[in-house]
């Protein structure tokens, strides 16, 4: 970010967080808290449920490492289709750039796995150990049977939940019904067990212990997010003009008469923050945009009979220049946003068109190199080929094989092959012709493979015919 005077001071990054202190987030209710839990439920229903969804006798979503196939409902991708995975990553990156330029760290605050699982683990901790004051008191107390029981119950629940998460994760890379059977019969393979435990350990460690440290120090997104920010990016903003000077006062007191702003310096915005920052010190890279401080501050404002919005979603320019909501929306449409949106739209349309028009058939033609040609009993000159026909769709198809584009040559072997969806069929093809039917040496020929019932599903591959 370039140095500017005026509005740039609003998002000055101030290292005011004690990185050593443990953060005990206070529970809060409100509109944004409800939205966070809506996204927790949505993401986890998809994560834990999608791998169990059947589709045409198999798993609807499966990245089968052993078979080297990626199933997504009717779409079957092979190693040759890596381009689609690359496009998917590019689209994800562009979407992140676009949404960050427009609305800051919404991904971090609502759908990032670190945020989602930390929210779940905090809920478990609250149910077992109590609210923030009880948890602080429990940690500070000497060890006792009660403390041992509470800590054991909490960590046992965390571990069970983490193991289920690890099991589900591995279920996206091998058929989950087979994995479940292996678990129930104690016959799980070493690699499957390793990845279940590894992912469970990562979930347990990240959401149970590292928590805010992931967002503060480990996650690279927190470091480069400001490259995508500008003064019109939506952020969590504290209205300094309205809030300062801070100070406690009676509810009936007139803050102007006391020379005070609307901030009563209660500190609740700090207590509810999952990363333990004070948003009143300006935007910091530790802020994940979860809006917990907005819910907390609005409740305090309600109690004091002050207008809401002392802490709110806004922009640098809006806070300093007092823009209205419509001004914020209008200024959201700016060059970098339009560029990101245009590129993202074009790539999305191109990818969707490519998948929609993709022919579910791939053919590889391998010529027998041991014998360039041979003379058959009937006097014909024959060349032998090995055809690998991949039915990349999801339904069984019958394919017809023919030779096109060359007069005098014909197929003398079986011309049809039936291949199950998502499988590879191998066919030996023998092409023959009378001596002199084509010029001596190598002649280009074309194998045409087409679905008997759907001629649009067809592929033509070139090879060489050798005539002595």
From TrEMBL:
GO terms for molecular function: 4 iron, 4 sulfur cluster binding; metal ion binding. InterPro entries: 4Fe4S_Fe-S-bd, 4Fe4S_Fe_S_CS, Cyt_c_oxidase_cbb3_FixG, Electron_Trans/Redox, FixG_C, Helical_ferredxn, Ig-like_fold. The chain crosses the membrane at residues 35-55, 83-104, 156-176, 188-207, 337-356. Residues 254-282 form the 4Fe-4S ferredoxin-type domain. The keyword Oxidoreductase does not apply. GO terms for cellular component: plasma membrane. Keywords: 4Fe-4S, Electron transport, Iron, Iron-sulfur, Membrane, Metal-binding, Transmembrane, Transmembrane helix, Transport. PANTHER family: FERREDOXIN-TYPE PROTEIN NAPH. This is Cytochrome c oxidase accessory protein CcoG. The gene is ccoG.
């Amino acid at each position: 970010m370039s140095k500017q005077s005026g509005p740039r001071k609003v998002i000055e990054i101030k290292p005011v967080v004690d990185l050593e202190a443990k953060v005990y987030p206070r529970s809060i209710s409100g509109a944004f808290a409800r939205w966070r839990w809506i996204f927790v439920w949505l993401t986890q229903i998809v994560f834990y449920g999608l791998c169990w969804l059947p589709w045409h006798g198999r798993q609807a979503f499966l990245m089968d490492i052993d078979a080297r196939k990626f199933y997504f409902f009717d779409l079957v991708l092979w190693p040759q289709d890596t381009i689609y995975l690359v496009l998917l990553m590019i689209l994800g990156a562009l979407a992140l750039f676009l949404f960050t330029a427009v609305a800051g760290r919404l991904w971090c605050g609502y759908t990032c796995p670190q945020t989602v699982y930390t929210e779940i683990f905090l809920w478990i901790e609250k149910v077992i150990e109590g609210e923030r004051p009880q948890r602080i008191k429990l940690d500070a107390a000497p060890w006792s049977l009660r403390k041992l029981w509470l800590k054991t119950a909490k960590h046992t629940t965390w571990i069970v939940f983490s193991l289920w998460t690890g099991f589900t994760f591995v279920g996206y890379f091998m058929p989950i019904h087979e994995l479940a059977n292996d678990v129930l019969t104690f016959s799980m393979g070493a690699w499957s067990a390793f990845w279940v435990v590894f992912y469970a350990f990562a979930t347990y460690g990240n959401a149970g212990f590292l928590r805010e440290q992931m967002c503060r120090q480990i996650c690279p997104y927190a470091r480069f997010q400001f490259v995508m920010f500008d003064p019109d990016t939506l952020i969590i903003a504290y209205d300094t003009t309205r809030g300062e000077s801070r100070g406690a006062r009676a509810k009936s007191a007139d803050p102007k008469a006391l020379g005070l702003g609307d901030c009563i310096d209660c500190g609740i915005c700090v207590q509810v923050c999952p990363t333990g920052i004070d948003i009143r010190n300006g935007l910091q890279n530790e802020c994940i945009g979860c809006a917990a401080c907005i819910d907390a501050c609005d409740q305090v404002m309600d109690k004091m009979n002050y207008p809401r919005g002392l802490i709110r979603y806004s922009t640098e320019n809006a806070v300093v220049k007092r823009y209205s909501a419509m001004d914020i929306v209008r200024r959201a449409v700016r060059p970098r946003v339009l560029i990101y949106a245009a590129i993202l739209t074009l790539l999305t349309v191109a990818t969707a068109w490519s998948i929609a028009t993709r022919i579910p058939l791939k053919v590889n033609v391998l010529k027998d190199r041991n014998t360039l040609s041979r003379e058959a009993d009937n006097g014909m000159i024959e060349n032998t080929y090995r055809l690998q026909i991949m039915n990349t769709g999801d339904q069984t198809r019958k394919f017809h094989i023919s030779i096109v584009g060359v007069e005098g040559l014909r197929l003398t072997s079986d011309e049809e092959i039936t291949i199950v969806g998502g499988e590879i069929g191998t066919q030996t093809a023998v092409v023959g012709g009378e001596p002199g039917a084509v010029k001596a040496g190598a002649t280009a020929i074309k194998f045409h493979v087409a679905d008997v019932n759907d001629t649009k599903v067809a592929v033509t591959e070139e090879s060489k015919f050798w005539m002595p």
